[in-house]
Design a protein that fits this description.
With 233 residues, the chain is α+β, with helices and mostly antiparallel strands. It has two domains: 123 residues, Nucleoside Triphosphate Pyrophosphohydrolase; 68 residues, Orthogonal Bundle (Arc Repressor Mutant, subunit A), CATH 1.10.10.10. Helix content is 23%, strand content 28%. The chain contains four helices and nine strands. It starts with 9 loop residues before the first strand and ends in an 18-residue tail after the last strand.
């Protein structure tokens, strides 16, 4: 018999780390969507979008509803469950267990955000509430790992793109430089890319228009289970 155990109400929430490659002053960077808390606890700190699981919801439905209601993100290109954060003291008050998700938004998407919500570079996060910074790091690690052995970059890329644009997406997401020629060779060998019969519009400096591509699949699949993209030596 277990004695002296505290009786606490347990609440279940969903939290989603939504990533997008966005242009900042120093160039394209991987950004995460955050909203600023206006009430205690942790007033002024930044949080991941999420909220309490509804009585008749599964986790995926709850995550999508919270994104739509809290930060007006109606659609994500990819959504997958990450992990469960269940430390009894992760937040003050009633015990709150969090099922966390990774969400991806394409480069060209521009959701209309509430005034208390904005994109922040993952490399320079503001003061984060509770364990949300740890969730962001966990989601970033998952993204980087899956970019090596799956086609997950389809969730960050527009419907059609040049290899130069795709390279920018990979560089921002991975956090290091990637060679365009090598990237094209690897992805083409894996059957990830489909060339299109169109070219990009000429740039301001003129030059030859670049060939356009799309991802062959818009759902997740493993392309090389033993592959690992690594920083240049």
């Amino acid at each position: 018999m277990i004695e002296n155990m505290p009786h606490r109400t347990t609440v279940h929430e969903t939290l989603t780390a939504v990533f997008q490659v966005r242009k900042f002053a120093d160039g394209p960077e991987l950004a995460v969507l955050l909203w600023q808390r206006a009430m205690e606890p942790e007033v002024g700190a930044w949080s991941l979008p999420g909220g309490t699981l509804g009585d008749y919801e599964d986790l995926d439905t709850s995550a999508r509803r919270q994104l739509a209601e809290k930060v007006d993100v109606q659609k994500v290109a990819h959504l997958e469950q990450l992990a469960v954060f269940s430390d009894p003291n992760r937040v003050p008050g009633p015990r709150l267990i969090a099922s966390t998700f990774l969400g991806l938004v394409p480069l060209t998407a521009d959701p209309q955000l509430p005034a208390d919500t904005s994109w922040h570079p993952v490399s320079a996060l503001p003061r984060m509430a509770f364990d949300h910074g740890t969730v962001v790091a966990h989601a970033r690690n998952r993204l980087v790992a899956k970019l090596s052995y799956t086609n997950l970059a389809y969730g960050l890329a527009p419907a059609a793109f040049t290899m130069s644009t795709l390279r920018q997406i990979y560089c921002a997401a991975l956090g290091y430089e990637v060679d365009t020629t090598n990237l094209q060779r690897v992805l083409s060998r894996r059957g990830v890319l489909t060339p299109l019969d169109t070219v990009s519009a000429p740039g301001r400096a003129g030059g030859r228009p670049a060939k356009m591509y799309r991802f062959t699949d818009s759902t997740l699949r493993v392309t090389d289970e033993f592959a690992a993209l690594r920083p240049p030596s």
